[in-house]
């Protein structure tokens, strides 16, 4: 039985004793100590408390040692475990020199944007020496999500998994695995990431790319000084394992495969899918994918490997991170077998893989796709060049939605909205680009200036929204993974070229489209999503490539309150960090 299952066996054993009001401590095989307070009878929701200490620690990788910002001395950080319906109290204390905020990526935070985490969107950051408790109720969700810093580029090292088990007595819609493991994909820079970004900003250019990719914080033995920095997963012959895969990389979509083993996809972004088997998966920054792996090959050591996908003329860190799937009893000196990953620019695989993703859409796990649309939005994604007097070459690269580069405010947008503070943002973000053009035609290399502003879009409560995200050839086409906070959405359509509102809508999947919180817009193409705006508050929409987010490829929706207090934003907590 794996560590996560031991944790939940411990928790459910405690529940079975029908304690009314006790605090119980479960030490789970050396994992994070879980403070589990139960105030209810078995089968009902629990209160779980976590302490996150943000601190600086020296870590060595690739023959280099440097101080990095991490949580609880761990890289990646501790896994947050919960069951559907639980309440989490996660107290974050900032001991680092940087301001800090943490986003609980994919948790819907109904009416409670105060716990969402993006700095200057739903809160001001936690200053050095201060604390803030994120009060989160897990409602109607189960599966794999993750948490990460949401300020500067600190999520390079400040991140970890969130594992939400189904309610007690509710099983998986697939055969239960023997055990499970988290697989967190990331990036590593030999130099201080924030200094690398500052250097790039000074030049007005992209910062240096990462020096390696990592699996559970380790690059694997294909890199120098990395034999001991290799993650190993031991498996038993004939058993089935659930891998919870998270792409925590800052700027790279990644292929992932295991030599000699097929992967059966059963969940994306904490939503069950119709199972399908593949030799590799594609996972964008911000996304999660659960796969089943059967250990039915000849006992040996097999490499798990991750490498970028990039089908545009953009430089990436094209290095392969590896970990080892090791059958029990096989000695460590046996040389692992490498998998055959798709080529760096294999667009056909990417399109085919994403086309296979379908919601489970059963009576127990329905796909409630909005069939009628109240609000149609069309956002173009583009790069640009703006003047920059402080940059060495006088200009800097930028990014924009509908030609608007988002300017971050100095106080939280949710606070400004809740307290009706004027002058912080406007709600005049355009529903369509200012001037239609051949979005994916010949590259456009002139007149690349963008407008700037803190402009948001106001959405009526409980209205249904369709948003088409259209890539453009402003400087270059490129794939963009977009994340919407506070919501899941249905990916009803996607294609290459310019979106055709007549012919493309006729091809929409309105029966079982994939439901997720982060979606890749294909290079030189478009993606259409639909959602019901039933979660009031201010919700961030942004590219999950950290480079593009920092360049302004972002905006936010102001979802209005409903007709009564039960459908309105909750009051802010007393310990909300001051601005």
UniProtKB/TrEMBL annotation:
Q: Name one Pfam family in it.
A: Cu-oxidase_3
Q: Matching PROSITE patterns, A to Z? A: MULTICOPPER_OXIDASE1, MULTICOPPER_OXIDASE2
Q: Where is the Plastocyanin-like domain?
A: 54-168, 183-329, 429-562
UniProt cross-references to CDD domains, sorted A to Z: CuRO_1_LCC_plant (cd13849), CuRO_2_LCC_plant (cd13875), CuRO_3_LCC_plant (cd13897)
The reaction(s) this protein catalyses: 4 hydroquinone + O2 = 4 benzosemiquinone + 2 H2O
The alphabetized list of GO BP terms reads: lignin catabolic process
Q: One GO MF term, please?
A: hydroquinone:oxygen oxidoreductase activity
SUPFAM superfamilies, per the entry: Cupredoxins
* A GO CC term assigned to this protein in UniProt: apoplast
This protein's UniProt keywords: Apoplast, Copper, Glycoprotein, Lignin degradation, Metal-binding, Oxidoreductase, Repeat, Secreted
Listed InterPro entries: Cu-oxidase-like_N, Cu-oxidase_2nd, Cu-oxidase_C, Cu-oxidase_fam, Cu_oxidase_CS, Cu_oxidase_Cu_BS, Cupredoxin, CuRO_1_LCC
Give the E.C. number(s): 1.10.3.2
- Requisite cofactors: Cu cation
**Compartments reported by the entry:** Secreted, Extracellular space, Apoplast
What binding details are noted for the cofactor? Answer: Binds 4 Cu cations per monomer.
Q: Signal peptide position in this chain?
A: none
Main subcellular localisation: secreted
Q: What does this protein do?
A: Lignin degradation and detoxification of lignin-derived products.
The family database entries (NCBIfam families) matched by this protein are listed as:
laccase (TIGR03389)
Task: Please state which protein family the record places this protein in.
Answer: Belongs to the multicopper oxidase family.
The identity of this protein, by name, is Laccase
Lineage, broadest ranks: Eukaryota, Viridiplantae, Streptophyta, Embryophyta, Tracheophyta
